[in-house]
Design a protein that fits this description.
Shape: elongated
Distance between the termini: 59 Å
Number of helices: 6
Largest sheet: none
Radius of gyration: 18 Å
Length: 123
């Protein structure tokens, strides 16, 4: 089990103490048997890591941070060699999806800044 995974599990258990695997499964959408294996040492898939991380951070407060990005990147690096080709392709697709979302986010921010700049010149 990676250090990042151990930290995440500890944080989850601290936030939701004594929560059953059944409740965890309903909360995260991860199968009960899979949660049992993960919480007992089996390596997480990146999708599981992200789902659990989402619930460790308050929904209203969750924004991607350098720390969470570093955790994800460290998880990928420490588990990459053990992934099958199909899992590697899945991770690649997740990363590409994230990049596309960030492009859209920053484009929207830049467009808003340009619009505000135009309005300040007009005034």
């Amino acid at each position: 089990m990676s250090i990042e995974q151990s930290k995440l599990i500890q944080m989850y258990r601290k936030k939701f103490p004594n929560e059953s695997f059944r409740k965890m499964s309903k909360r995260t959408g991860i199968q009960i048997s899979r949660l049992f294996r993960v919480f007992n040492g089996q390596e997480m898939r990146i999708s599981e890591f992200l789902k659990i991380q989402e619930f460790v951070c308050d929904q209203s407060e969750f924004t991607p941070t350098v720390n969470s990005d570093e955790q994800i990147w460290n998880w990928i690096k420490s588990n990459w060699s053990g992934l099958s080709l199909s899992r590697k392709l899945h991770v690649q697709n997740l990363i590409q999806h994230y990049i596309d979302e960030m492009k859209d986010y920053y484009l929207d921010e830049n467009e808003m800044a340009e619009e505000e700049e135009k309005l300040s010149y007009e005034a």
